[in-house]
TrEMBL record, chain A:
Skewed-composition ranges (Basic residues): 1-11
Residue segments, region Disordered: 1-20
Stretches assigned to the HTH cro/C1-type domain: 7-61
SUPFAM superfamilies: lambda repressor-like DNA-binding domains (SSF47413)
Keyword annotations from UniProtKB, A to Z: DNA-binding
Species annotation: Desulfosporosinus nitroreducens
PROSITE patterns: HTH_CROC1
Protein's UniProt name: Helix-turn-helix transcriptional regulator
Automatic annotation (TrEMBL), chain B:
Lineage: Bacteria, Bacillati, Bacillota, Clostridia, Eubacteriales
Name listed for the protein in its UniProt record: Uncharacterized protein
InterPro entries: DUF6773
Keywords tagged on the record: Membrane, Transmembrane, Transmembrane helix
Domain of life, source organism: Bacteria
Organism from which the protein derives: Desulfosporosinus lacus DSM 15449
Length: 69, 148
């Protein structure tokens, strides 16, 4: 699984640390870190929670374009 | 989302480690039974079963702490040291009780086959508890350093 740079940049744009985002979504900092590194596939519930905190849509944060498109 | 429970990634990792620890326990007990069948006894019953269970429990605890799946997201104002102090207190009490019981044990001078292994079990348990507590403290400090 590739790194989720969109999530990382969106979080940075909101000037939030991983800990801030984790507190806002009710998970641990390690979980946010694992999602950003692509080590963990979050549930749709957590995805929606992250999107609401960052003010983005699911597409904007979690959709991955195929390389051959 | 609850603030006191584990989050979804922690639950997944804890379940994975739990399954591994259970299978490890199963196979070790199976091997122990097999060895007994061949006439090889590495420890008297029930110490053999106890040591295997203790080993698997230590493996389980160490792995879930290593994977940060032991404590969930915490409320901000909670004092994190209370749990550690209580655990240390219980560990200390168990260690003292185990040591006293072990030193006063009459069966020390007799073969261990007297059947009363309770003091020995308490002694071993307290030592292992201290080792586990030490590992927990080290891992907690290591993770806190990584968080900074």
């Amino acid at each position: 699984m590739s790194k989720n740079l969109k999530l990382k940049s969106s979080r940075a744009a909101k000037d939030m640390s991983q800990k801030d985002l984790a507190d806002a979504t009710g998970v641990t900092r390690q979980t946010i870190n694992a999602i950003e590194k692509g080590d963990y596939n979050p549930s749709i519930k957590l995805c929606v929670s992250i999107c609401k905190v960052l003010g983005k849509t699911l597409d904007q944060l979690f959709w991955e374009e195929d390389e051959d498109e | 989302m609850s603030r006191t429970n584990l989050d979804e990634m922690q639950v997944q990792k804890r379940n994975m480690v739990g399954n591994q620890a259970f299978m490890l326990l199963f196979y070790l007990l199976l091997i122990d039974i097999g060895l007994s069948g061949f006439g090889f006894r590495w420890l008297q019953y029930p110490m053999n079963v106890f040591v295997i269970m203790l080993g698997c429990m230590t493996y389980y605890l160490t792995r879930i702490i290593w994977n940060n799946s032991y404590v969930g997201p915490r409320p901000k104002n909670r004092n994190e040291n209370i749990g550690r102090r209580i655990a240390l207190g219980i560990g200390g009490a168990a260690f003292v009780a185990g040591t006293v019981a072990y030193l006063n044990m009459d069966s020390l001078k007799k073969p261990i086959s007297t059947g009363d292994n309770s003091a020995m079990i308490l002694f071993v348990f307290s030592i292992v508890l201290f080792i586990v507590l030490g590992i927990v403290s080290l891992l907690t400090k290591w993770q806190a350093r990584n968080d900074e």
